[in-house]
């Protein structure tokens, strides 16, 4: 019997740190009013997608993005009997730890001059390799079994986590000298990326449109890709 599953990855909406071009990492920066609008717009783009399971990072920007998106969506099948969205928060899909760079401006020479690599942690923070390792466990243990059963899963998280998912699923090869942030494309705020599966094998992926997000941040991701075995 053929089973068709779906994974939707959603970066949070714009935050106060995004607005000020600050390194966020695991700081709990709140959504801006625009970020809240972006989250609602993401929900409208879902159409009638019914999610069997919703995960979010434990950081408020990801959780609140999920709530606002689900509230705005056309399908409320995932509400519990008390009218509350059932969202499982996991620290495993928190943004990469920026360490000493947390809260610093992106153009600070201490950041721009830092010799970053895939395996080198930020000062008192994480390496991209470490982030990919935790996301891979989450994907293998939490996401794939549900996908193989034909479920539709939403994950609301962060740009670094979406990049890590791409690496885990074999869609992105990290640059050893630059890491997952050196791929040349940005992950847009609150712009859903949908991955289609058949019998647990990815068959297609594409990005939805969010009219509240500036255009040309990155081209739509689409096409057939073979995940890593």
Write structural notes for this entry.
- By secondary structure, the chain is an alpha/beta fold.
- It has a single domain, classed as 3-Layer(aba) Sandwich (Rossmann fold).
- It is 28% helix and 15% strand.
- It has helices at 16-19, 33-45, 60-72, 109-112, 128-148, 159-168; strands at 4-11, 53-57, 88-90, 152-157, 193-198, 201-207.
- Strands 3-2-4-1-5-6 form a 6-stranded mixed β-sheet.
- α2 packs across α3 (60-72).
- The longest helix is centred in the middle third of the chain and has 21 residues, at 128-148.
- Residues 218-229 have low confidence and may be disordered.
Q: What's the arrangement of secondary structure elements?
A:
Elements: E1 4-11, H1 16-19, H2 33-45, E2 53-57, H3 60-72, E3 88-90, H4 109-112, H5 128-148, E4 152-157, H6 159-168, E5 193-198, E6 201-207
Parallel strand pairs: 1-4, 2-3, 2-4
Antiparallel strand pairs: 1-5, 5-6
Helix pairs in contact: 2-3, 5-6
Summary, kept brief:
The chain has 229 residues and is α/β, with parallel strands linked by helices. It has six helices and six strands.
């Amino acid at each position: 019997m053929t089973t068709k599953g779906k994974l939707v990855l959603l970066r949070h909406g714009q935050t106060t740190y995004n607005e000020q071009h600050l390194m966020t990492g695991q700081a709990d920066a709140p959504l801006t009013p625009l970020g809240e609008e972006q989250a609602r717009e993401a929900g409208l783009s879902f159409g009638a997608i019914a999610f069997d399971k919703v995960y979010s990072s434990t950081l408020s920007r990801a959780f609140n993005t999920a709530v606002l998106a689900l509230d705005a969506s056309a399908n409320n099948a995932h509400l519990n009997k008390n009218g509350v969205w059932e969202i499982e928060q996991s620290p495993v899909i928190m943004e990469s730890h920026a360490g000493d760079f947390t809260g610093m401006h992106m153009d600070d020479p201490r950041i721009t001059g830092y010799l970053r690599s895939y395996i080198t942690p930020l000062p008192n923070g994480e390496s991209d390799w470490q982030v990919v390792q935790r996301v891979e466990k989450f994907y293998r243990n939490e996401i794939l079994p549900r996908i193989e059963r034909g479920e539709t899963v939403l994950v609301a998280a962060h740009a670094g986590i979406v990049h890590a998912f791409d690496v885990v699923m074999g869609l992105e090869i990290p640059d050893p000298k630059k890491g997952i942030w050196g791929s040349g494309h940005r992950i847009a705020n609150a712009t859903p990326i949908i991955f289609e599966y058949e019998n647990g094998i990815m068959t297609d992926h594409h990005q939805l449109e969010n009219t509240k997000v500036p255009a040309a941040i990155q081209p739509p991701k689409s096409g057939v890709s073979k995940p890593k075995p």
